Structures are given as C-alpha cells and as structure tokens.
Amino acid sequence: MSTETGQLQPATDAPSWEHFPHMADMGVRGRGATIEKAFAHAAEALNAVICDPVQVGTTTPVEIRCEAPDIESLLVDWLNALVYEMAVRQMVFGRFDVSIDGSALHATAWGEPVERERHHPAVEVKGATYTELKVYRDENGVWIAQCVVDV
C-alpha cells in the first residue's frame, strides 16, 4: 500500500506530513524541527484525509486552546479540537500556527467553509485515537507526532 506524503521541507527534504495505513482507519503523522511544527503538520495530515490541502483557502482564523496531562494526550486533544471545529463550523483548514507551553496548546487554524464541488471531501473524520500514538524526537532530532484517526 502506498504512503501519501505532504509538502517537502526545504532543509531536510523529508515529508512534513504523511498518512500511514491502519486497518479501516488512517494514520496521520507530522514531522518538524520543533514539536509545534510536528503538531501543525499532523493537523495538515488530518485535513488531507478529508480533502486535497491545495484546494483549501486560509481566509478565516479559528483560535483553539487545549490542555492535557502529557504531550501524547495533547496531540489527541489538539486533533479532536480540530475535528470538532470542522464539524461545528462546516470548515476545512489549510494552515496552522501552534504554540505549546508545557501541557497547554494554543493554536490558530486558518481555513474556509466547505464547498463540496471544490473540496470534494472524501471522508468524515470522527476523531483522533490513542492507537499508534507517539510524540518523540527521532535519531536526527526531528519531532514526530502521530496517531490513528477514526474515519
């Protein structure tokens, strides 16, 4: 099964996000030089499960805050907050600025209302899970943030 990957990072030439297969669901993985970038790229991977990120405008900002007892739980809470905002606001997002201070995350997600004819949403993401949940630095010092999302 092939792996989808996101835009290449100029410095490392490594994908900034990717999907990985997991039974009937989908894994999302973000990579970055900082933990904040890895979380932002995991959000891009989440959005890319739904539609082509290239088709998403970034005109409307949405503020998101969450807290969790550990960094792995914070990733799940962050992605689930995005799923909630997408469902309630009927939006898709294309850009993410993330700030993490200990157990607290503050982010701005930029997006636009879903236009079915243009965005062609493929699936509805029900939520992020604790399956395959990992947040760590690899041997090259790159942050990895991943989990499986229920589709």
N-to-C span: 18 Å
Give the mean pLDDT: 90
Strands, count: 8
The main pleated sheet reads as:
5 strands, antiparallel
Structural class, by secondary structure, is alpha+beta
* Order of helix and strand elements from N to C terminus: EEHEHEEHEEE
Nearest-angstrom radius of gyration? 14 Å
Global geometry: globular
Helix content: 25-40%
Strand percentage: 35-45%
Low-confidence stretches: 7-11
Summarize the structure.
The chain has 151 residues and is of the alpha+beta class. It has 3 helices and 8 strands; from the N terminus they run ββαβαββαβββ. 26% of the residues lie in helices and 38% in strands.
Describe the 3D structure:
By secondary structure, the protein is of the alpha+beta class. Helices cover 26% and strands 38% of the residues. The chain contains 3 helices and 8 strands. The protein has helices at 35-50, 71-89, 116-119; strands spanning 17-22, 25-32, 60-67, 91-101, 104-113, 127-128, 134-137, 143-150. The strands form 2 sheets. Strands 1, 2, 6, 7 and 8 form a 5-stranded antiparallel β-sheet that branches. A 3-stranded antiparallel β-sheet has the order 3-5-4, covered by helices on one side. Helix 1 packs parallel to helix 2. The longest helix is centred in the middle third of the chain and has 19 residues, at 71-89. The protein is globular.
